[in-house]
Predict the structure of Pirin-related protein.
Amino acid sequence: MIQLRPSDARGQADHGWLQAKHSFSFADYYDSREMGWGALRVINEDRVAPGTGFPMHGHRDMEIVTYILSGALEHKDSLGNGGGIRRGEVQRMSAGKGVLHSEFNPAADEETHLLQIWIEPALRGGRASYDQHRLFTPDNASQWVLVASPDGRDGSAVIQQDALLLAAHLGPAEAVRHTLAPGRLAYVHVIRGQVSLNGVALAAGDGAKIADESELAFQGGAEPGEFLLFDLPPAA
């Protein structure tokens, strides 16, 4: 089963300084049919205006991954961490029993475009922690880049869930494949360009819920495509 989630079906929010699109129910956007997919709870596409950002606020019991599409983001938290991330870097925060943090666009004349991803942890009430590092050159093509995993292999960010987050860039003649173990779920989010999944065409902003599939075949479209794949544990 591959269930398309078209870009224009996502929730939207205009806060002036923040333009947001929500793949799943979040804040003032609520759809009882879109409460997440397995352990994947949030994919927010945010555009943060120059010199603005999210003031200090709290989270708990969530694995939060920030994937920068353009611009930069400054982070500070109650654990004493601070620093900036740019394109090609990933930020991971395990909220655990609770953490406060702020996120800010430090640029005077450039918006920050990002995806913020929330994945539910396997166990609640854990220790809060934070990590950020460079993953890859953003224009790597026709190969998977492991962004996050439970064991940090291949230089990926460590998350407290049996889930994999992978990224790929495909040109028109390029392809990648991924095998899903029996019972596992998957979700695809297209960042830019075009890609097909098992013959289903996807464009920028589109997503797809995947269940009861074993082989996922991705083919580049007329426009170079960048996308994320979530390999998720079976639904509880």
About this structure: Residues 143-232 form a domain with the Jelly Rolls fold (CATH 2.60.120.10). The chain has two domains: 11-134, 143-232. The chain has a mean pLDDT of 93. The CA atoms of residues 88 and 137 lie 6 Å apart.
